[in-house]
Structure formats: structure tokens, C-alpha cells
Amino acid sequence: MKLSTLPAALLSLILLAHQAAAAPLGNVDAEAAASQRILELQAQYQRNVLDAISNRTSGCTAQNIQRRQEWYPQCNTLSLADRAAFISAIHCLNALPARTPQSTAPGARALYDDFIVAHILQTPFVHASGLFLPFHRHLLHLFAGALRDRCDYAGPLPYWDWTASYADPRAAAVFDGGPHSLGGNGAFVPGRNGTVISVPGGAHVVIPPATGGGCVTTGPFRQGRFEVRLGPVAFEPRGPHGGLGYNPRCLRRDLSPHFSLGTRPGAVVALLDGCAGDLGCLVRDMDAPGGVPGGVHASGHWQVGPDALDVFASPSDPVFWLHHAQVDRVWTIWQGLDLEGRTYQVWGTSTAANDPPSDDVTLETAMDFGILGEAKTVGEVASTVDGEYCYMYE
User: Fold this and answer.
1) Which residue windows are coiled coil (predicted)?
2) pLDDT digits (tens, 9 = 90+) for 251-265
3) Distance (Å, rounded) from C-alpha 372 to C-alpha 182?
4) SS3 121
5) Superfamily assignment of 3-53+72-393 in CATH?
6) Pure H helices in the chain
7) How far is C-alpha 202 from the geometric centre of its chain's CA atoms?
8) Residues 341-369: tens digit of each pLDDT
């Protein structure tokens, strides 16, 4: 697929969204085999990375590399203590004063909002473009730094492995509603219509209602405990000032077993094995419109909704950070299978679906993070073990 054809291809998302409700689950045996394949590829990536840094005595070394861990409570995953500390740190960010000028975002009240503002302002450039993966990698890095420096979180940045709960996200530990989760599903709201969302590149997608739709009522981010203030931008009723105005409300979720199919293990194997050596393939098929029903990135958002449906203000839901850490994990494994050939690959242009037309992305292309930190080039964020970064995924 050529980049110039992307706007038309994005329109197919409308059909894909409607077909999702009727899509059958993947073959259980095939998905189990795909899960094993992901673990094999991850182990290969880990060996390659550790070999590459094995002789280092400074910078990122095998001794000080940060190991990002999955949220689910099993071997080699995030401890209950770290989960509790991570939750507390998000509440801390959501209580510290914002640094964003009121002239930029009159609705920003907390430091957590600063991250949402940056994502809203950069969305037209960093989705369905060559900046998608590098921008979100550094945004995660800045978020992890804020958790550490401003809120004393000492644990690793967690990820949500949605391949483990592709059959039904309600079974994911991250959504079990307990004190060590990111809250449960939203209260069920019957009789709803589908939500029409705007996607960068000019398309509109109809997301059918699922199993919730209302305020989150359980867990640390339940109604009355956590407040969303910015957006919506991508769907009605839109928030004031283009979504940057003050619009206080509860966090809402609508967990969808239909859209979670798009994050099945087989979809990830199709990326890691099927896009070998081709970053354009990886980005197109990871993001819309590749995959069924919408690529692992889009499907990760769409299975959570409603706040996660808003591509602009989706960091309003704290699960955004775990979802995008998993997206970064897939990219990182893909890079790590051929560090020399893939780490510094670039692809695409610097606007969503190349609309309006923009220059091709290079390693020197700069990305704007606003009040969060200085601009970074694509080349500066390409490696997870050089520059500011020193992490790997377990």
C-alpha cells in the first residue's frame, strides 16, 4: 500500500467496525501457538539486546537496564507493591498543578492534563504517520519520568499484554476492578447508539455499543475518585475550546469482546513475522486500517472505550499508558530481531495519512512535546538502549 492511498483505506474502518460484532473468535489452538511464537521472538530479541550491550561499562548496561513488566500477577510480572505504587503515582500526577498555560488549554488543571494536552495538539501529526511509533515511545518515557521525579514511583513502566485477554477484556487483570487494577468496566447503559469517532486522515468510524458505556464504578479510578477534564475531541458531545476547555466528568469504559479480537496473538505474530524488515508494513498494519477489526493499536483503544475511543484525548484513561507500552513492546521486539537493520529505519511522512501532504520522515525529523520537554528527533528515540533510554521488555 502506498502512503498516498491511505485516506481511502482509512474509510474501510467504518465497514470493519460494523463487521466486528459478527467476527468469530480466532482458533484457540492457533492462538495458543501464536502466543508461544511471541514468547520465542521476545526471547530472541532479549538475547540480541543483551549481547549488544554486554561489553558496556557505562551508559546503558546489562546491569542497569530497566525491565518493563506486564501488569498481570504471575511470574516475572509487576508486583502488587509496584502496581499499588503506580496507581498512587497517577493519582499524584492528577493532583499536582498543571504547567500548561491557560491560554493554550484553559481546561488543564493537573500535571496529568499536560500529557493529554500534548497528545491532543500532536495527534494530527503522530497517528497514521511515520511519527506514530517514535512520538509515543518518547511520550511514554516522559510520563515514566514524571511518575519517578514528581511522584516517587520507583518501579518499572508496566504494559498490558492484550493478547492474553483477547477473548474478553473483562477477564484482564488490569480491569478486574480490584484495588490493584486500573478500575473495572463502566456501568452498563442500555439502548445506546453507536459512537461516531473522527480518525486522523479524514475518516469517521462507527463504534457499536458493548458491555458498559457508563462511569467506572469500581477500583482506584472509579467515579468520585478520578476526574477526566479534557475532551472529547473525536466524538460528540465535544468538549469546549476544541477539547482543551474544562469539562469535568467521570472516567467511562465500554469493554468490548468484539474489538479485543483485533489484539489476538495471531495479529501480533502477523506483524512480527509478516512485516520482517519492513517498517511501513509494521506501522500500517499495527495502526488502522490493517488487521481485523482494526489493527492492534486501534483495537486496543476500541475495546476499552468510550474515553479511550477519542484518539486525541485518549490518555484521559490511565490504561492508555499500558496499552501504548504494549504497542512499543511490539515495535521493540520487531527492532530487536535485527538491531542493525531495523533500529534506525524510517517510513512515511509527518502528517496523518499524509493529509495535508508533508515531507518524508527522516532521522532528523523533530517531534514537539510542548511543555513536557524539549523536541526530539526520530533518530534520538530510535534505540531503547542508547541516548536517554535504557529499557527492555520482559
Assistant:
1) none
2) 999 999 999 999 999
3) 24
4) helix
5) Di-copper center containing domain from catechol oxidase (1.10.1280.10)
6) 6-20, 28-53, 80-93, 111-126, 132-151, 265-274, 279-286, 295-302, 319-336, 339-342
7) 21
8) 999 999 999 999 999 999 999 999 999 99
